[in-house]
């Protein structure tokens, strides 16, 4: 029995009021995991490719530049159905809705992940404080 997996992660910056299958909170500038399984399909959101995996390897030619070097899969666990994405150095702009889409010999499936970034308000406050201090120097 041959099984193959196509994994594409896309990003779409939309309001978090949209209902999703899974809500994930990540800390600004930390590493975060977006859950995806072969049962749930390929991960995608909107028209921006975050990560693609097929033919047993990463396919990053169409990966959006702002995700370059920040995404990885647990390649040793894909055959067991774990297609979760690890996103490093999480940015405020990463907040939004992602779609997990997988295609296997058993069919195509999709699920959604809403990513929320925690700690961004304190970072923004610190940034504004630094700007104010520099203005008054």
Descriptive overview:
With 137 residues, the chain is mainly beta. The protein has one domain (6-135): Immunoglobulin-like. Helix content is 12%, strand content 38%. The chain has one helix at residues 120-135, and strands spanning 6-12, 22-27, 32-34, 48-54, 57-58, 71-73, 85-87, 96-104, 107-118. Residues 54-116 form the Immunoglobulin V-set domain.
Q: If classified by CATH, what would the architecture be? A: Sandwich
Reported for the largest beta sheet, the result is:
6 strands, mixed
The secondary-structure element order is: EEEEEEEEEH
Low-confidence parts: 1-6, 14-20
In short:
With 137 residues, the chain is mostly beta strands.
Task: List the main descriptive attributes of the protein structure presented here.
Immunoglobulin-like; 9 strands; transmembrane helix; 38% strand; cell membrane; disordered N terminus; 137 residues; transmembrane; 12% helix; 3-stranded antiparallel β-sheet; Ig-like_fold; glycoprotein; 6-stranded mixed β-sheet; mainly beta
Itemize the secondary structure elements and their pairings.
Layout: E1 6-12, E2 22-27, E3 32-34, E4 48-54, E5 57-58, E6 71-73, E7 85-87, E8 96-104, E9 107-118, H1 120-135
Parallel strand pairs: 2-9
Antiparallel strand pairs: 1-4, 1-8, 3-7, 4-5, 6-7, 8-9
